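Hey, quick one: can you model this chain's 3D structure?
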Amino acid sequence: MATTLSTIESYMVAEGLKYSQHDDYLRTSFATDLYKDQDGDSSVFIIARVEEDGEYFKLMAPNLYHYPPDGPNTSEVFRILLGVCWRSKLIKYEYDERDGEIRAIVEFPLEDAPLSSKQFLRCLNGLVQIIDEYHEAIALAIGGSEASLDEAEETADNIRRADRIMRAAGIDKARASADPGGAIRFEE
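Sure thing. Here's the predicted structure for all 188 residues.
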């Protein structure tokens, strides 16, 4: 037997993830450090879906970006999107040339094998991490500038390092804030 939506739902419940169930998919969201949606919110929506009677699995983040089909920086936008696909190997970016939607997706055939919890969580965490990590470069390209995947990776690495240091020091990131001068203040 392949995988059912209720199996994926059980994985989400076991991890304590908040989600909503729709007719043929589950929807959840994650906070992000770098990625901001079109409304400026630091979160990404994820849809989990099984198709072909559970023999095909999809995990996607729709409407991440919009770039007009006749945009002035098309070659740079696609260079960056394809570069992310090359470097990450887990996700691919899709572009709808009709309305300019750019989404990220992880998909693969299951055929007769069930999707394990470990596989699902790796795909879910990887999708969110990769979207967040390369957001800076994608946003620059969409905005009309040249972008660097290396710089985006370095920025994301620095944020992860800072998070690890704060956790090791027992500092609650949610209670720490930076003042305009760049110094970190910790609220009691």
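One thing worth noting: The radius of gyration is 18 Å.
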